[in-house]
Write a structure and sequence with these properties.
Helices cover about 10% and strands about 45% of the residues. The chain is mainly beta. The protein has one domain. It is globular, with a radius of gyration of 17 Å.
């Protein structure tokens, strides 16, 4: 099974993505785009349709590992819907909040997730699950430099009723202004490294590129990227059990 998605993303310096642990992060931005080619007319959907109980009375845990931003919106696109999650919505979800589970969610261990992280990513997964997608949907969430690395954070959504195995995910990041390639790498390339995603589950992946070209310095540290996803195989597992072999 083959698939190709392209995302355009304009980044503003208001989103801090903590990939390893608190204090080790990526200064990037509120990001948005399409996980596949999209129509010019896009309906923006505020992320207030899902009720979360037990929120904090004010924004807190703003440096929890994961996606951390204190102003603006985290925005991304699914088909013709652009989801916008305000910072205040994100940062009042805490470890003891009760978040609806419309779909399963898994967080890459490289995030070193806490209870706060898991609840916020569950909320993010629920937002994604509200809209119909193909069997497999890679969604670019944010990207940028941090700790000497170039990182892409992607939501990998298996919307089927079968456990699936993903392999050969090629991610290419280029500058939107000049189309110059910033980074390209194949992830989950071997049978032993293939990613198993349970049925109806969003896997939030931290993808670190071994080689990259530093983006140009711009006023306000604002950079726009095109992110291109291509995968080689997304296959069902026999008996709902996947074995890396």
């Amino acid at each position: 099974m083959l698939g190709v998605w392209t995302s355009q993303r304009s980044l503003r310096p208001v989103l801090l993505i903590l990939a390893m642990a608190a204090g080790s992060g990526i200064l990037t931005a509120c990001s948005g785009g399409s996980a596949h080619p999209h129509k010019s007319s896009v309906a923006t959907t505020p992320a207030n349709s899902l009720y979360v109980s037990g929120r904090a009375s004010r924004p807190t845990d703003e440096t929890a590992p994961g996606i951390d931003f204190t102003q603006g919106d985290l925005s991304f696109q699914i088909g013709s819907h652009r989801i916008a999650i305000p910072a205040v919505t994100w940062n009042t979800i805490i470890g003891t909040s009760r978040v609806p589970e419309l779909v399963g969610s898994m967080v890459d261990p490289a995030f070193h997730p806490t209870d706060v992280t898991r609840n916020r990513f569950q909320y993010l997964a629920d937002q994604i699950a509200q809209y119909g997608v193909p069997d497999f949907e890679p969604i670019g969430m944010a990207e940028g430099l941090g700790a000497g690395q170039f990182i892409e954070f992607a939501a990998l959504y298996n919307s089927t009723a079968q456990v699936k195995k993903l392999s050969g995910l090629t991610v290419t990041v280029s500058l939107q202004s000049s189309a110059k390639k910033v980074a390209m790498q194949v992830f989950f390339a071997t049978p032993s490294s293939a990613l198993v995603i349970p049925a109806r589950t969003v896997y939030f992946a931290r993808l670190s590129f071994a080689h990259f070209r530093s983006p140009p310095k711009t006023r306000g540290n604002s950079v726009s990227y095109n992110v291109h996803f291509h995968f080689a195989h997304f296959t069902s597992c026999r008996g709902q059990v996947c074995v890396n072999s």
